[in-house]
Design goal:
The chain is mainly alpha-helical. It starts with a helix and ends with a helix.
Length: 187
């Protein structure tokens, strides 16, 4: 059932993008010819090398994405082994984690970026993520794990801050390539 629901949501997103979302790039700024040589993940990374100030930010993005992929990949094994959590409880924990992430994106990111800027958002998000991971690692019992969840959810400040910093460093016509390069480092 979760896979069917996910497929349905993806289909709704596809239809919405196809029918409702307008093309954001004006006609005069679009490429006249498509270049297949640049349409691959490795070629998109060339953009990062061509702008020296992007490479360190891309490194931070890579490490952030790595940490974000490690947690869900080991979470079930770790919590089952250490805390003996049953699968149903793991589902509830995933739900709470997702809900906290949505709340951070909806209500925290904007005000924090407005107050401390993109760089401050990245630093705060990294500090809170590290705090959450540390609490997770040191939690002697499963109930203490939940103390780390609000801290860890603030790691959601990192990605918008990184995106903001990176997009400011490339021209308007390089924004798509930058997004491709970011997706490449994430993959």
């Amino acid at each position: 059932m979760p896979f069917i629901a996910a497929a349905g949501l993806c289909a709704v997103n596809w239809v919405y993008g196809l029918i409702v979302l307008p093309e954001s790039l004006p006609v005069e700024r679009r490429l006249t010819a498509f270049n297949w040589r640049r349409a691959n993940p490795v070629a998109s990374l060339e953009l990062l090398r061509s702008h020296a100030e992007l490479l360190p930010l891309a490194g931070v993005n890579f490490l952030f994405q790595l940490s974000q992929q490690v947690l869900p990949n080991i979470f079930v094994l770790y919590t089952t082994m250490r805390y003996h959590w049953p699968l149903r409880f793991l589902g509830v924990t995933f739900f709470i984690t997702g809900a906290l992430g949505i709340l951070v994106q909806a209500f925290v990111v904007g005000p924090v970026v407005k107050r401390v800027g993109e760089r401050g958002s990245v630093l705060l998000g990294a500090a809170m993520g590290a705090t959450g991971f540390l609490i997770y690692a040191l939690a002697p019992e499963g109930r203490y794990y939940f103390i780390g969840m609000p801290f860890f959810s603030l790691i959601g400040l990192m990605q918008p801050g990184l995106q903001g910093l990176m997009t400011q460093r490339v021209s308007q016509n390089e924004q798509g390539r930058l997004q491709g390069a970011n997706q490449s480092t994430a993959a």
